[in-house]
Amino acid sequence: MKKIFFLAAMLLCFITVNAQDTGNVEMADVLRSSGKIYVVITTIAIVFIGLAVALFAIDRRLRKLEKEN
User: From which residue to which does the signal peptide run (predicted)?
Assistant: First the structure.
């Protein structure tokens, strides 16, 4: 059973890699040439940092509630 699962996972990985288009991505080239790619990266970083801060705050509150009970 493990061998079948492993074989299916490897087959899925190979299919996924081969199914990807290796051509140029026009949107990325346009963003890079105009310098707007840094705005996109900064926005994504701010969103991820905000999510991390929110998760740590929730974790701290949950630990505090667990210690009280």
Answer: 1-19
